[in-house]
C-alpha cells in the first residue's frame, strides 16, 4: 500500500491520518511541536453546521473597521506593512459579496453535516471525548444584533437546518444552568460539542492502534522533488521517502507551501480561551454571546470560554489583556450570576486559526504537484470540519468520488 506523509499533526492532520489508515494506507505524521497544546486543543469544541456564512461577507469590512478602533473588540487586524497582509486584505474584500456567500452556504452546510455524522460514528465507538448534541444558542442583548442573528437563522432554515427563534422567556426555559440577561436567542438544533483535548487524545490512541507513525518535535524543512512529484520529506531528524503528501499545517501552511513554489494566502486569526474546572453553577447549553462574539462551552464538569479574532502573524505570542477583558465583560453581562474574574496569565490559552481570505477551507489536490493534497485554512471551523476533511482527503488520494462537492474548496 502507498505511503502517505502528513505535514502537521493538528486536528486536520490527525483526522486525515485516521481515515487514510482505515483505508489501509501506511501513514506517517510529522509535527514540529510536542502535539499537546496547539490550536486544536484549547478551542471551544463546537461542531457547527449552523456556521454556513463564511467570514468574508458583506458588512464585515465596515464592522471590522469600526472594531479596529476598540481595544476590547472581538475582531482586530493588527496593522503592519506586510505584503501578505495587503494581499490577504484585498482578497477578503473581493470575496465579501452576496454572490460568494450564496455559493458558500450549501458547500459549508454539506461539509459540516458530513462531519457531524462522522463524529456520531466515532462517538458510538468511544465516548471518551464527551460528544453531546444540545445544539447551539446564539444569545443577544440588542435589537440590531437580534435582527442580524435572526436573519442568519432564517437563511439556515432555508437551507434545511432546524432552528428555533426564542424570546427572553424561551431562553430562560432552555438555559437552566444559570440566569441569562438577554432579549432573546436563536437555537440551532443541528449543532453539537465535545472536549477538544479529549478528542485529540482519543484520535492519537486510535492512530497508535492502527500503527500510524507520529513524529512529534520534528520540523519539516523542505521536500525532495522528482519531476513534478515529492519523493521525500526533509526534516530536522532526517529524510523520509513518500508516495503521497498531505499539507495540513494550519497557520504555517503558507511558509511550507512556499518551499514547493505554491502560493497559499492564510493568516493566523489569534484567539484566546480559558477553562474553569468543576463549576456547578454554569451554563448548560453551548452558546455564543453575540455582541461580544464569545463562545461558551460546557465540557464534562468544566466550562470553557473563548473568543477574539486578531489577524496577526505566527510570531505574535503576547497575550493582549484588553481583548481578554472584552471576553470577561461579555460573560458577566450575559450571565449576571456567574461572576467571573479575569484569569491569571498562566491560565490563558491562545491559538492561531488558519484563516483564508475567502472564509472557506482548502481541500484539494494541488494542480502542479501530482502527489500533494492540501487540507488547510479551516479558520474558526477546523474542529467541526475535521472528520469530513479527513474522509475527503482519503477519497482524493484513493481517486474516488468525494462524499460532498469540493468545488468551493479549491486553492
Ligand atoms: C479561541 C478559539 C476557539 C475555537 N473554537 C472552535 C470551535 O468551537 N469549533 C471549531 O470547529 N473550531 C474552533 N476553532 C478553530 C480550530 O481550533 C482550528 O480551525 C483548528 O484547530 C485548525 O486545525 P489545523 O490542524 O488546521 O491546525 P493546527 O491545529 O494549528 O495544526 C497545524 C500543525 O502543523 C504543525 N506544523 C506547522 N509547521 C510545521 C512544520 N514545518 N513541520 C512540522 N509541523 C508543522 C504545527 O505545529 C501544528 O501542530 C477555534 C480556534 C480558537 C483559536
UniProtKB/TrEMBL annotation:
SUPFAM superfamilies tied to this protein: FAD-linked reductases, C-terminal domain, FAD/NAD(P)-binding domain
Transmembrane segments: none
InterPro entries attached to this UniProt entry: FAD-dep_OxRdtase, FAD/NAD-bd_sf
Domain FAD dependent oxidoreductase residues, every copy: 4-395
Keywords: Oxidoreductase
Highest taxon of the lineage: Bacteria
Annotated GO CC locations: cytoplasm
GO MF term list: oxidoreductase activity
Keyword Oxidoreductase attached: yes
PANTHER family: GLYCINE OXIDASE, SARCOSINE DEHYDROGENASE-RELATED
UniProt name for this protein: Amino acid dehydrogenase
Source species of the chain: Flavobacterium laiguense
Amino acid at each position: 500500500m502507498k505511503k502517505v506523509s502528513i505535514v502537521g499533526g493538528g486536528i486536520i492532520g490527525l483526522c486525515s491520518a485516521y481515515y487514510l489508515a482505515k483505508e489501509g494506507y501506511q501513514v506517517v505524521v510529522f509535527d514540529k511541536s510536542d502535539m499537546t497544546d496547539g490550536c486544536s486543543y484549547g478551542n471551544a469544541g463546537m461542531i457547527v453546521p449552523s456556521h454556513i456564512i463564511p467570514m468574508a461577507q458583506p458588512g464585515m469590512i465596515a464592522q471590522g473597521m469600526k472594531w479596529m478602533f476598540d481595544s476590547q473588540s472581538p475582531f482586530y487586524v493588527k496593522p503592519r506593512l506586510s505584503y501578505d497582509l495587503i494581499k490577504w486584505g484585498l482578497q477578503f474584500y473581493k470575496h465579501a459579496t452576496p454572490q460568494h456567500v450564496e455559493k458558500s452556504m450549501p458547500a459549508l452546510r454539506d461539509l459540516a453535516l458530513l462531519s457531524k455524522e462522522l463524529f456520531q460514528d466515532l462517538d458510538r465507538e468511544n465516548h471518551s471525548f464527551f460528544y453531546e448534541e444540545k445544539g447551539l444558542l446564539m444569545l443577544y442583548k440588542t435589537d440590531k444584533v437580534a435582527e442580524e442573528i435572526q436573519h442568519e437563522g432564517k437563511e439556515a432554515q432555508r437551507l434545511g437546518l432546524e432552528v428555533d427563534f426564542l424570546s427572553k422567556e424561551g431562553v430562560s426555559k432552555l438555559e437552566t444552568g444559570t440566569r441569562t440577561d438577554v432579549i432573546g436567542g436563536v437555537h440551532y438544533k443541528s449543532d453539537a460539542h465535545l472536549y477538544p483535548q479529549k478528542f485529540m487524545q482519543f484520535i492519537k490512541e486510535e492512530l497508535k492502534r492502527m500503527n500510524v507513525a507520529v513524529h512529534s518535535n520534528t520540523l519539516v524543512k523542505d521536500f525532495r522533488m522528482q519531476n513534478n512529484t515529492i519523493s521525500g520529506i526533509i526534516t530536522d531528524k532526517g529524510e523520509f521517502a513518500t508516495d503521497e503528501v498531505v499539507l495540513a499545517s494550519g497557520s504555517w501552511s503558507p511558509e511550507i507551501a512556499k518551499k514547493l513554489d505554491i502560493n497559499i494566502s492564510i493568516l493566523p486569526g489569534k484567539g484566546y480561551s480559558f477553562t474553569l474546572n468543576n463549576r456547578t453553577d454554569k451554563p448548560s447549553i453551548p452558546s455564543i454571546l453575540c455582541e461580544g462574539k464569545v463562545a461558551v462551552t460546557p465540557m464534562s464538569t468544566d466550562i470553557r470560554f473563548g473568543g477574539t479574532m486578531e489577524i496577526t502573524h505566527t510570531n505574535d505570542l503576547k497575550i493582549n489583556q484588553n481583548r481578554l477583558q472584552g471576553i470577561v465583560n461579555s460573560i458577566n453581562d450575559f450571565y449576571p450570576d456567574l461572576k467571573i474574574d479575569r484569569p491569571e496569565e498562566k491560565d490563558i490559552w491562545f491559538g492561531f486559526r488558519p484563516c483564508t481570505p475567502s472564509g472557506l477551507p482548502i481541500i484539494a489536490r494541488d494542480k502542479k504537484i501530482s502527489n500533494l493534497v492540501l487540507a488547510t485554512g479551516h479558520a474558526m471551523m477546523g474542529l467541526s470540519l475535521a472528520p469530513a476533511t479527513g474522509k475527503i482527503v482519503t477519497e482524493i488520494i484513493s481517486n474516488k468520488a468525494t462524499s460532498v462537492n469540493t468545488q468551493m474548496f479549491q486553492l
